[in-house]
């Protein structure tokens, strides 16, 4: 057994899993506060990556500055999407809103194809060292950055929801829009904020993935990968999203290992998470951390 | 009835219609500043619908609502909380998984100025001072309602009587000038009712809030309120001082279920409207 490869893959699994985790958190954030399943989550990720890349490549900005601008851009983008696309749909059936996000996803994909082209572009070298060695393992610097950013984002999420005024307002709105409104919470602004946070964090994930893999429109696959992650963890649990993301990341890489070393079936990497998803849903239909929907009268 | 004391809220000719169903027809009454106004009536008479019109959940089909001389129909639900209208709900509506303290803090939302970013400049931005002020205010409410011992418990795990108190605490947290109480005593035992009555009296006297209450317990209504209106089939069938209202012929019959011309007529109209 090739234990070095196994460890390498496990480390990759954790790092990629954390990225899935933060995108999944964004997904859960929108679902929790607005009951909308956002099918454009993957496009948000790609958008972040393209914006950052084009600022580095065509405007020649230093990476960190481009990164900050990307954050600002994605915040504005999230708010605009909420105001233009979703606010007019308030009061419409949730399914219509979900269809609108599918439309948004198609629109964004076409727009990005048009503006940025459909070939993959690499980031110029933004780090002085492309590989760092941690405890004898070679890890790409981008991966380390990704891990640090993921943990930071998760920490911010936790602090925000636990201690901040708007975090509290968001939790309250997720629980009941009607009661929150009667307590003076402007729920329109809460929704806009949920979309903004979701867009920014997805953008961060996009930049990081872009650093490792090169940027292309196919990066939106992460929006698909997020589904098993979110469903494993439970649609309405932020912690579940992180755990689900890690689970999927590790599973992919373990499947890759088992397949590459013993089975030689090929492509287990992308299929295995969905098998596990099916099994988990058979045992726990609301996911590992989700709340069963019980109505008490 | 408007001659003694300033009017805080005036309900003027309000009707509310859901398709063919008239939930309220031409309801008018006025709540005096500092008063305790009770809305009574049989189940389904439209009492909660009336409250929902005031808090903004429903928009009346016709009629006017005047708050301090200003029309409030154009204000959104959350704006009305800012104006000073707070409410509790008939079926408990706490944020079940959040702690008692967090539940109350949600009510403070609109009073806070600092946000996540300025809060990071804890001392510079005045966030520290604000935090202390808010804490003191919330602590006062907690002390007043005697819920210190459960402050960190998730609200969903508390007993019914305590949850009612936490809900009252949350409504008080927005510092309302008018507080709408939807059946504050429902489902309580005698001891809990006495406590709640004590709190309601203090809301008026110590916190100087005006109260509009829906309640079925006649003893409580008679003891606490200084004005009563009776709704039946969406119409006000009597209003005025508690004793006078209780003595009213129609009211007795509405409650005892006896035959009465006025009520029969109302029921007929309601049936015809549905048909």
UniProtKB/TrEMBL annotation, chain A:
Name of the protein in its database record: Branched-chain amino acid ABC transporter permease
Molecular function terms, GO-annotated: transmembrane transporter activity
Pfam families xref list: BPD_transp_2
Bilayer topology: Multi-pass membrane protein
Source species: Phyllobacterium brassicacearum
Protein family: Belongs to the binding-protein-dependent transport system permease family. LivHM subfamily.
Listed transmembrane segments: 6-30, 37-57, 63-86, 93-116, 142-161, 190-214, 226-250, 262-283
InterPro entries assigned: ABC_transp_permease, BCAA_transport_permease
From TrEMBL, chain B:
Any single Pfam family the record assigns to this protein: BCA_ABC_TP_C
Superkingdom classification of source: Bacteria
Signal peptide: none
UniProt-listed SUPFAM superfamilies: P-loop containing nucleoside triphosphate hydrolases
Gene3D superfamilies: P-loop containing nucleotide triphosphate hydrolases
Molecular function terms from GO: ATP binding; ATP hydrolysis activity
Residue ranges constituting the ABC transporter domain according to the UniProt record: 9-258
Gene Ontology annotations for the cellular component aspect, listed alphabetically: plasma membrane
Keywords per UniProt: ATP-binding, Nucleotide-binding, Transport
Protein name: ABC transporter ATP-binding protein
Organism of this sequence: Phyllobacterium brassicacearum
Lineage: Bacteria, Pseudomonadati, Pseudomonadota, Alphaproteobacteria, Hyphomicrobiales
């Amino acid at each position: 057994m090739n234990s070095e490869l196994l460890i390498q893959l496990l480390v990759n699994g954790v790092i990629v899993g954390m990225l899935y985790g933060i995108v999944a958190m964004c997904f859960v954030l929108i679902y929790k506060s607005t009951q909308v399943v956002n099918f454009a989550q993957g496009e948000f990720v790609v958008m972040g990556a393209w914006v950052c890349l084009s600022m580095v490549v065509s405007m020649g900005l230093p990476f960190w500055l481009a990164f900050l601008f990307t954050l600002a851009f994605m915040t504005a983008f999230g708010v605009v999407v909420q105001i233009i696309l979703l606010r007019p749909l308030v009061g419409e059936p949730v399914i219509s809103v979900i269809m609108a996000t599918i439309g948004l996803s198609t629109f964004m994909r076409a727009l990005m194809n048009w503006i940025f082209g459909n070939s993959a572009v690499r980031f110029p070298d933004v780090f002085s060292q492309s590989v760092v060695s941690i405890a004898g393992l070679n890890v790409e610097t981008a991966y380390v950055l990704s891990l640090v950013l993921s943990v930071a984002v998760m920490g911010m999420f936790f602090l925000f929801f636990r201690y901040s005024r708007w975090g509290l307002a968001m939790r309250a709105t997720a629980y009941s829009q009607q009661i929150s409104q009667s307590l003076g919470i402007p729920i329109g602004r809460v929704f806009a904020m949920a979309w903004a946070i979701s867009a920014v964090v997805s953008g961060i994930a996009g930049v990081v993935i872009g650093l490792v893999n090169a940027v292309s429109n196919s990066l939106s696959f992460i929006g698909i990968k997020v589904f098993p992650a979110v469903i494993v963890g439970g649609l309405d649990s932020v912690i579940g999203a992180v755990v689900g993301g890690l689970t999927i990341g590790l599973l992919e890489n373990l499947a890759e290992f088992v397949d590459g070393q013993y089975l030689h079936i090929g492509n287990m990497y992308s299929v295995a998470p969905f098998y596990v998803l099916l099994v988990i849903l058979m045992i726990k239909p609301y996911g590992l951390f989700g709340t069963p929907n019980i109505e008490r009268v | 009835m408007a001659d003694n004391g300033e009017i805080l809220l005036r309900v003027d000719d309000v009707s509310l219609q859901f398709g063919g169903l008239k939930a309220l027809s031409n309801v008018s009454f006025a709540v005096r500043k500092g008063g305790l106004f009770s809305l009574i009536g049989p189940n389904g008479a439209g009492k909660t619908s009336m409250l929902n019109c005031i808090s903004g959940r429903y928009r009346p089909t016709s009629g006017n609502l005047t708050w301090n001389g200003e029309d409030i129909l154009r204000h959104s639900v959350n704006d009305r909380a800012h104006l000073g209208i707070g409410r509790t709900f008939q079926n408990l509506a706490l944020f079940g998984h959040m702690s008692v303290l967090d539940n109350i803090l949600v009510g403070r939302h609109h009073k806070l100025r600092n946000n996540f970013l300025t809060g990071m400049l804890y001392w510079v931005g005045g966030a520290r001072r604000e935090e202390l002020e808010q804490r003191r205010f919330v602590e006062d409410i907690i002390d007043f309602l005697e819920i210190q011992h459960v402050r960190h418990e998730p609200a969903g795990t508390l007993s019914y009587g305590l949850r009612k108190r936490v809900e009252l605490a949350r409504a008080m947290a927005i510092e309302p000038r008018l507080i709408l109480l939807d059946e504050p005593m429902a489902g309580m035992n005698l001891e809990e009712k006495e406590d709640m009555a004590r709190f309601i009296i203090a809301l008026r006297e110590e916190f100087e809030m005006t109260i509009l209450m829906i309640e079925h317990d006649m003893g409580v209504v008679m003891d606490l309120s200084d004005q009563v209106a009776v709704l039946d089939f969406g119409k006000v069938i009597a209003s005025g001082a508690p004793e006078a209202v209780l003595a009213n012929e129609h009211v007795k019959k509405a409650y005892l279920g006896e035959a009465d011309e006025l009520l029969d007529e109302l029921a007929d109209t309601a049936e015809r409207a549905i048909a």
